[in-house]
Amino acid sequence: MFQKPEYFFAFLLLIPLGLLLLADFRRSRHDLSRILGKWRASDFLDVFTVKWFFTAMAVTVFTVFLVFAAAEPEKPGKPEIRTVESRDIIFALDLSRSMLAADSSPTRLERSLEVMRNILAVRGGTARFGLVVFTNIGSRMIPATEDLALFETVLQNLGPGSISSRGSDLAAGLKTAVEAFPSGVESDKLLLLFSDGENFGPSIATVLTALQEQDILLITLGAGTPEGAGVPAAGGGFLKDSQGNAVITRLMPEEMDYLASETGGEFLSLNDPGLMRKIEDLIEGGNVRYSHPREPAYRVYLLIAFAALLVYFLVRTVRWKRVY
What we know:
Blueprint: H1 14-70, E1 74-76, E2 80-83, E3 87-94, H2 108-123, E4 128-134, E5 138-145, H3 148-156, H4 170-180, E6 188-195, H5 205-213, E7 216-222, E8 229-230, E9 248-249, H6 253-261, E10 266-269, H7 275-284, E11 288-291, E12 294-296, H8 298-317
Parallel strand pairs: 3-4, 3-6, 6-7, 7-10
Antiparallel strand pairs: 1-12, 2-11, 4-5, 8-9
Helix pairs in contact: 1-8, 4-5
């Protein structure tokens, strides 16, 4: 990894450098032939060509590795283990209509709210909690706080009436959740995502990068089942597609597992009977962080560059075959 990859544009200098070396080669051969004459020049020109090749290679290697060194290369340092005392936990709750499906009891939404209340009851007073809800956009409902009374007031109002007919945009929800963590504070950061994993938004790649850069541990809590269930309609019954068939919403376990694994987290099902114990284990162990600092690695590039420079001067000064 290089801290200043923009320095690699200097490699464009190799083009004019190569042209200059080639022009110098042709001019020098011409001068040798003119000075030494037709019969004596052949012995000198063979040696000159070989020496020119090695000096040109040495100049090229010197330039390349000097640029590498200037770009500030880094290498992995010795892993460090540290414990962070302060903890921030953000809940990200999917409020798309698929969360009203009943393949998590009593519904995906109600089961999600129940798990949130259980976590607050067990971990209240040990961390700051925040809440983000999302459909096609994300909204910060509660900033990171220790005021659990505020949480209960908000959770009581998150019923079916809060559900949107719009589809889920996981990237928007996760982006808002990342921004919900207090800035300028070193803390153990956990993000708990309550969703079925259905995504009707853009790629989540950039959000995953933000999670990794900020050392946020993502725990995905899957609502529903892979077999799926019908989506309740606002006026009763179930949603249907243009052909009159019932719309089935399904849990996407692969997508949810991928999201979690990219940050070192874990995917859990809301239907798991041992869910709370597993969440507690993840939260309890979350304040131990394994960091991988990076160290400068420019010395080896400078060593190769100056070795090439030494080869250049040796080839130029040492006589070959007592000729040149």
